[in-house]
Design goal:
alpha/beta; three-stranded antiparallel beta sheet; 17 helices; 9% strand; globular
Length: 339
């Protein structure tokens, strides 16, 4: 695995005065978080509720607050948002950078870096006080167009993104039942790495239904981006994982159009779209050393579990399925959204 993720160039050396200012800011955010509602979380450490959504204190630290106060969007920025999708980051990176890195290249960055190192999640990788020793990154150093990820809800994003006429957001979501199942599997993979007993399916189900999953409530998270996509269709592209799985060529081309890097007719004839599909397939990415627990970071192996649509039928009881369908119908009533 490559030793240094590309985004780390934004953590530049600072003088003592600048370091003290960063520490002062992070201390202020920590004081705010200390007063927020908290619960013992799904990974054994506290989770806190900020602006109606739940965050793991270790995974993001005070990242969401730091993002809001320090991130300034540039007109060419593209933000990849989700309740948790490693796949979207790989797809978008491959599509946007295919001129510099042809998807068929044996030196493609996705073969040596996990997509979270190529598309850093703002509140996890860039503004996480636990990870970055209370240092605010200098994102102006990163080359344009910049590609970032986030799990934050739309309503909590900095205004420089939500009020921008140019910065764009791509949001991807899964159907409710597959999303719950994916979250439960992810939690248990992490729990096993930190020597905790697996969380029982029934317990996780109750957490999820009450809206207390990671970055949840799930339904409010999805609705925020859905409504934004209706209000600002030129700036927010809303995608469903199930649709992409069913028609990958159509949606990859749509992503390219939205990001301002459309596939040319020549590229289509030369099979570039198919090359992107192959590069970003679960079979390919999950078998790379960089995406396995042994070769990648401690969490990277947990990010890959496939995108099997409808896999929930192998785990959930009919009663669970009915309950999730009922909640989803109630939450999305009148919105025009179906999952």
């Amino acid at each position: 695995m490559a030793s240094n993720a590309p985004y780390k160039i934004c953590f530049v050396h600072k003088n003592r005065e600048e370091e003290e200012e960063d520490e002062k800011n992070y201390k202020k955010y920590e004081e705010i978080v200390a007063k927020l509602p908290t619960l013992e979380g799904w990974l054994g450490n506290p989770v806190y509720q900020y602006q109606s959504f739940w965050y793991n204190s270790d995974l993001v630290g005070v990242g969401p607050l730091a993002v809001q106060h320090h991130f300034t969007a540039q007109p060419t920025d593209i933000l990849l948002a989700s309740c948790g999708s490693n796949w979207l980051k790989s797809l978008a990176f491959a599509v946007m950078n295919r001129k510099s890195y042809p998807p068929s290249s044996q030196q493609h960055p996705l073969l040596t870096f996990n997509s979270n190192d190529l598309v850093p999640v703002m509140e996890v990788k860039l503004y996480n006080n636990n990870l970055n020793c209370n240092q605010i990154p200098n994102l102006d150093i990163l080359p344009s167009p910049r590609l970032f990820g986030t799990y934050m809800p739309y309503t909590s994003l900095p205004q420089s993104i939500t009020h921008s006429d140019h910065a764009r957001i791509i949001y991807i979501c899964r159907n409710t039942k597959d999303n719950f199942l994916s979250w439960w599997h992810f939690v248990n993979k992490i729990r096993s790495k930190i020597s905790l007993e697996p969380m029982k399916l029934e317990e996780a189900f109750q957490w999820f239904c009450k809206g207390k999953s990671a970055f949840g409530p799930f339904w409010d998270h999805v609705l925020g981006y859905w409504k934004a996509s209706l209000e600002r269709p030129g700036n927010v592209l809303f995608l469903k994982c199930d649709d992409i799985m069913a028609e990958p060529v159509f949606y990859f081309k749509r992503m390219g159009d939205f990001m301002g890097c459309s596939f040319s007719s020549m590229e289509e004839k030369e099979g570039v779209v198919d090359q992107v599909i192959k590069l970003c397939s679960f079979e390919n990415l999950s078998n790379l050393d960089v995406n396995k627990a042994a070769g990648g970071g401690p969490l990277y192996g947990a990010y890959f579990r496939g995108n099997n649509v409808g896999d929930f039928t192998n785990y959930l009881t009919p009663e669970m399925i009915e309950q999730l369908d009922h909640i989803t119908e109630q939450k999305f009533h009148g919105s025009g959204l179906t999952l």
